[in-house]
Design goal:
single chain, alpha+beta, Arc Repressor Mutant, subunit A, BirA Bifunctional Protein, domain 2, seven-stranded mixed sheet, 16 helices, 22% strand, elongated, binds phenylalanine, ligase, Phenylalanine--tRNA ligase alpha subunit cytoplasmic
Length: 446
């Protein structure tokens, strides 16, 4: 835009002074004076002065005299019959924004009845180099430019080496990892130790038999469990313990009648992808039974696998959170107390329990939490006291009881992040935006 296209604009207008405003309302001093002089005869100057404001008298005398309206002496008398208040008329015109002639302005200005007021502005017009007429500079040399050959005429934009680049994307943790970290912190704060959970492949023995789960149990069917083809069987099992487990399944002991069926070693040898992390708990408890007894609190958070029909709330693999406390004389009351402590740290303080069945726990309880947002009770986990048929063959002392519970990691994560389809949370269809949009995880589930 060239400079010559910008014009300064200055406008002068006139406004009344305080005195001007007074005369516009009350009449000019000369007229006020004229009207104070009687139409017939005369009035003494002293008498006249008393009738008028001193300033009006003084100015009125000089102006009325100049206009030859009155005869001034000791006595004052009129020289004309009528006068017109020209000054008042002019002041009213100025007040109403009308333009006056140069002479009229200068006479009012001389008497300090008006003052100038200036208004400043600019007039701006488009110049010959105004943007739309300019050629747009090309930013990229395209294949079309090369094919058409118009690159010869193109004007290319210069590189701006000072421009800032795109902000670099930092790492973001997946919601499951963040909730997992919160849960891990909760367990650690409660004094639990983490169990080693790095084996996805487990034998049926540790996953089911050691947990007093009978070999005909439907969960042990290939419809529910992924069995391994290669290697299809486990290499070794602790023989003495296997013998005790076989016996407790077949004929009981330790005050139990057992299941009364023929237990098969081949079934126990079958390798599978672990269906729950309780398989890890059974290994840990067996190891504990080998040493002089010491109470323990264990937890794990890791992946498990089930041959499920995949739908919006089920996947064939998910993460299980497992906690257990092993000590002398524990009761169901201890389990309820620990569950209240654990879940309230997750923001779920209203809990209810429902009797349930697990082959390895008695009694067993499903855990429900009241979800304020949903306005209803939702199932959040499963729990129980491990059966003597599981603990005593391991060699744990008889008065040692184990309270335990399990839940999925996906469930609380979906509630926390408002996700209603598990496939949006886990698997190859997860939108990276979900991860980027949730850099911070909120605690408090209900
Ligand atoms: N293993 C159970 C959870 C559970 C753990 C410990 C005790 C009771 C139940 C499940 O998979 O659902």
């Amino acid at each position: 835009m060239s400079k010559s296209r910008i014009l300064d604009i200055k406008r002068e207008t006139w406004v009344l002074t305080g005195e001007g405003k007074k005369y516009a309302a009350e009449g000019s001093p000369e007229v006020q004076l004229f009207l104070a002089v009687p139409a017939e005869g005369s009035i003494s100057k002293d008498e006249l002065q008393k009738k008028l404001d001193p300033a009006v008298f003084k100015i009125g005398c000089s102006q009325a005299g100049k206009n030859k309206w009155v005869e001034m002496g000791k006595q004052v008398s009129r020289k004309v019959q009528n006068v017109e208040d020209k000054v008042k008329d002019l002041l009213l015109q100025v007040q109403n924004g009308h333009a006056l002639s140069k002479e009229e302005i200068s006479s009012l200005k001389a008497r300090k009845l008006i003052v100038p007021q200036t208004w400043k502005g600019y007039s701006v017009r488009k110049g010959p180099n105004y943007a739309p007429k300019r050629k747009k500079a090309a930013t990229d040399l395209t294949r079309e430019n090369l094919q058409k050959g118009d690159w010869k005429e193109l004007e290319f934009k210069e590189y701006n080496f000072n421009a800032k680049g795109q902000p670099a994307e930092g790492g973001h943790l997946h919601p499951l990892l963040k909730v997992r970290k919160q849960l891990k912190d909760i367990f650690l704060q409660m004094g639990f130790e983490e169990m080693p959970t790095n084996n996805f492949v487990e034998s049926s023995f540790w996953n089911f038999d050691a947990l007093f789960q009978p070999q005909q149990h439907p969960a042990r069917d290939s419809h529910d469990t992924f069995f391994l083809e290669e290697p299809s069987t486990t290499r070794e099992l602790p023989e003495d313990y296997v013998e005790r487990v076989k016996r407790v399944h077949e004929s009981g002991g330790y005050g139990s009648r057992g299941y009364g069926y023929e237990w098969k070693r081949e079934e126990a040898n079958k390798n599978l992808l672990r269906t729950h992390t309780t398989a890890v708990s059974s290994r840990m408890l067996k190891a504990l039974a080998e040493k002089p007894f010491a109470p323990k609190k264990y937890f794990s958070i890791d992946r498990v696998f089930r041959n499920e029909a995949v739908d919006r709330t089920h996947l064939a693999e998910f993460h299980q959170i497992e906690g257990l406390v092993c000590d002398r004389g524990l009761t169901l009351g201890d389990l309820i107390g620990v569950l209240h402590d654990f879940f309230s740290r997750l923001g779920m303080s209203k809990l209810r329990f429902k009797p349930a069945y697990n082959p390895y726990t008695e009694p067993s309880m499903e855990i429900f939490s009241y979800h304020e947002g949903f306005g209803k009770w939702v199932e959040v986990g499963n729990s129980g006291m491990f059966r003597p048929e599981m603990l005593l063959p391991m060699g744990l002392p008889e008065d040692v009881h184990v309270i335990a519970w399990g839940l999925s990691l996906e469930r609380p994560t979906m509630i926390l992040y408002g996700i209603d389809n598990i496939r949006d949370l886990f698997g190859h269809k997860v939108d990276l935006g979900l991860i980027k949009r949730n850099p911070i995880c909120r605690l408090g589930i209900s």
